[in-house]
């Protein structure tokens, strides 16, 4: 399962596929998308499932690369160009690791 979560209404932590490295073509595309003239669009689910089955995606719009850590997978921080709706932020931030977990 990917570790994707909101850090704030305008910052989102996103985990790449397991084989992605910063040096790979995909990793390079993530890091340099703006310079290369491409856009990254962020879609999220507020929950995995709902009463109808699989939850639909919510389109949060274009994002810009901020930073990354690690490799295989890369943990990337994206900056949303528009703040996410408060209900989406509440749902997306509840899966973020706690500060105690991050310090461990």
Report a brief summary of the structure:
InterPro entries: DUF3427. With 104 residues, the protein is α+β, with helices and mostly antiparallel strands. It has helices at residues 25-32, 86-93, 99-103, and strands at 5-6, 11-15, 40-44, 49-50, 53-54, 58-69, 75-80.
Task: Give structural notes.
The relative contact order is 0.27. The protein has three helices and seven strands; from the N terminus they run ββαβββββαα. It has helices at 25-32, 86-93, 99-103; strands at residues 5-6, 11-15, 40-44, 49-50, 53-54, 58-69, 75-80. 20% of the residues lie in helices and 33% in strands. The longest helix is centred in the first third of the chain and has 8 residues, at 25-32. The protein is globular and about 40 Å long. The chain has one domain. The protein is α+β, with helices and mostly antiparallel strands and 104 residues long. The strands form two sheets. Strands 1-2-7-6-3 form a five-stranded antiparallel beta sheet. It has a two-stranded antiparallel ribbon with strand order 4-5. Residues 1-90 form the DUF3427 domain. InterPro entries: DUF3427. It holds the Pfam family DUF3427. This is DUF3427 domain-containing protein.
What is the fold's blueprint, element by element?
Blueprint: E1 5-6, E2 11-15, H1 25-32, E3 40-44, E4 49-50, E5 53-54, E6 58-69, E7 75-80, H2 86-93, H3 99-103
Antiparallel strand pairs: 1-2, 2-7, 3-6, 4-5, 6-7
């Amino acid at each position: 399962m990917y570790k994707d979560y909101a850090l704030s209404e305008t910052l989102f932590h996103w985990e790449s596929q397991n084989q992605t490295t910063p040096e790979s073509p995909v990793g390079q595309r993530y890091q340099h998308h703006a310079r290369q003239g491409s856009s990254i669009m962020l879609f999220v689910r507020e929950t995995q499932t709902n009463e109808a089955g699989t939850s639909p995606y919510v389109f949060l719009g274009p994002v810009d690369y901020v930073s990354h850590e690690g490799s295989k997978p890369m943990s990337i921080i994206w900056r949303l160009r528009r703040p996410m709706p408060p209900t989406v932020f509440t749902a997306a931030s509840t899966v973020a690791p706690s500060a105690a977990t991050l310090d461990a």
